[in-house]
Write a structure and sequence with these properties.
Blueprint (H helix, E strand, L loop, with lengths): L1 H28 L4 H6 L9 H11 L5 H13 L13 H36 L3 H16 L2 H15 L10 H31 L3 H8 L4 H12 L1 H25 L5 H10 L3 H29 L11 E2 L5 E2 L11 H8 L3
Antiparallel strand pairs: 1-2
Helix pairs in contact: 1-13, 5-6, 5-8, 5-11, 5-13, 6-8, 7-8, 7-11, 8-11, 11-12, 11-13, 12-13
Length: 345
């Protein structure tokens, strides 16, 4: 298991390097000049050419690409991303100021996504009416198809402009968090509901479910106590990916609702070609993605003890019998053992 996590950590470091390199390259190839934008105070081309050249030299933008890249990479290794081109504040300080608002929004949206997605999947498998079950199971597909910005504008129009229940814009405490969190959580919860519903449907068709029914267990007990745990692995996997999607969704959500945070910081930084801010935001998002997936990998054996992170392969023993180990995503090699592990007590 130690070797497995060491390998996953090495892959995570490779992901961080790739994200940093690709982002730096794209920013370098974008048309425009960060020094011209900064010198003009937001209006490129309005500043004195001499002032622009002096600022380019000060920021190191007149150096060749490989020198700029190596300097930026060396600084990133020691968590020094430089200062914002626009206001001269260190990029780490700007991120630290924007992070609490985004973390609160993403955390609230994650809670709503899990509660709503898991609840919808359970209810859709418990209802007896076929037409109602069909409606409930079609809701995730509808929610996924709706664009996030359109959903945010719709919630604003109904609950802010028409009903006046919540403020329309700004970071105004808990009340101001409701609509942005809903906007961010609905598509994420829909993904979770879709995956969990399908996984529960497959799990409920297994033999151990019929055995539990034969012992007198009710539908609710079977679904929650026995089927949910067996169906949780695919949902946990997609959940690790969706955490990164939540951070990406804050870019649109914070812009629509005029909330301060990492999302709006990225939009402003890209518009102004503020390379230090963009790079620290990209690296932060990549770190969150890598750490989340490492946590998901660590949770697999807790949900299903049959899963072990072993790199050993099946090999014949000295007596002609084969010994095997389980790897994530593979079923046990002995069907009888698998059935024994799935049979409820």
């Amino acid at each position: 298991m130690v070797r497995y996590f060491a390998w996953r950590l090495a892959l995570g470091i490779l992901v961080l390097w790739a994200a940093f390199t690709l982002s730096f390259l794209l920013l370098y190839l974008l048309p425009g000049d960060a020094a011209a934008v900064a010198a003009a105070g937001g209006g490129e081309g309005a500043a004195d050419p001499a002032a622009i050249e002096a600022l380019r030299a000060e920021l190191g933008l007149d150096a060749p690409f490989h020198e700029q890249y190596l300097a930026a990479l060396g600084g990133a290794l020691v968590l020094d991303f430089g200062s914002s081109v626009q206001n001269g504040i260190p990029a780490t300080e700007v991120l630290a100021r924007a992070l609490p608002s985004t973390a609160t929004l993403a955390g609230a949206a994650l809670v709503l996504s899990v509660v709503g997605g898991v609840g919808l999947a359970l209810v859709s498998n418990l209802v007896r009416s076929s037409w109602l079950r069909g409606i409930l199971q079609s809701l995730p597909s509808l929610a996924i198809a709706v664009p996030t910005f359109w959903l945010g504008l719709l919630l604003l129009q109904v609950f802010s402009f028409q009903l006046g229940w919540v403020p329309a814009f700004g970071s105004t405490g808990f009340v101001g968090l409701i609509l942005p969190a809903l906007t961010l959580s609905i598509p994420t919860g829909a993904y979770l509901a879709q995956v969990l519903t399908r996984s529960l449907h497959e799990t409920l068709s297994r033999p151990f479910v019929e055995q539990a029914r034969a012992k007198g267990a009710g539908d609710t007990r079977i679904l929650i106590r026995h089927a949910l745990r067996n169906a949780a692995l695919p949902t946990l996997t997609i959940g690790g990916v969706l955490v990164g999607q939540l951070l990406a969704g804050t870019v649109v959500t914070e812009t629509v609702f005029s909330r301060d945070g990492v999302g709006r910081m990225i939009v402003t930084a890209v518009a102004n070609r503020d390379i230090p801010l963009v790079m620290i935001a990209v690296v932060f998002a990549a770190v969150v993605f890598v750490v989340t997936n490492l946590i998901v990998d660590a949770l697999y054996p807790l949900i299903d003890p049959r899963l072990t992170h072993s790199t050993k392969q099946q090999r014949p023993s000295s007596k002609g019998r084969s010994t095997s180990t389980l790897t994530p995503g593979l079923a046990p090699t002995e069907p009888a053992k698998a059935a024994k592990n799935e049979v409820p007590a």
